[in-house]
Design goal:
Blueprint: H1 5-15, H2 20-27, H3 31-38, H4 47-57, H5 61-65, H6 71-77, H7 80-94, H8 98-117, H9 121-164
Helix pairs in contact: 2-3
């Protein structure tokens, strides 16, 4: 999925809850012109306008133009809504397998049901934090198991090649 400059601008503007008409007025341009920028119709907008936009929306120019080399710092600057869209696209491929989708749905349902069982909002927040920590620990364990399995299969493959020689 290729992210376009206009999509980043629109997502950030919407995240800040700035209406298109108000933002266009602030930039001293027409709402139609701003809409064309956001929808990728106007692909080469006036540099002064782009600078006003990134200044007002607090968007890093290097990130906006895709010239930043560090993916981690790039991801830190992407608006949360856009991060969600990217994750949704990536994760939808994982959820195409029916068994994984079924298990994921069941897990999500249990997590959401817990909010009704733990009526206290603070307890539910603690539950979610604990769940997140346990998930990270479990992930690390399985990643370690994967490394061990890969090294064993690599070792066996080396053994087989030595036997053949």
């Amino acid at each position: 999925m290729k992210i376009k400059v206009g999509e980043i601008i629109k997502t950030k503007r919407e995240e800040l809850k700035i209406p298109l008409v108000n933002f266009a007025k602030e930039l001293d341009i027409s709402p139609g012109y701003l809409s064309q920028i956001e929808n990728g119709i106007k692909t080469n907008p006036n540099l002064d306008i782009v600078l006003k936009i990134i200044h007002r929306l607090d968007i890093d120019l290097a990130m906006l133009l895709g010239v930043e080399s560090s993916e981690e710092s790039y991801l830190l600057k992407i608006p949360p809504l856009l991060k969600f869209i990217l994750a949704k696209e990536r994760n939808s491929r994982v959820l195409e397998e029916q068994e994984i989708l079924r298990k994921f749905s069941s897990l999500s349902e249990k997590i959401l049901e817990t909010s009704y069982l733990l009526e206290d909002q603070e307890l539910y927040k603690m539950f979610l934090e604990d769940l997140l920590n346990q998930t990270e620990t479990t992930l690390k364990r399985y990643m370690g198991m994967q490394i061990i399995m890969q090294s064993r299969s690599g070792f066996v493959d080396n053994d087989k090649s030595q036997v053949k020689e």
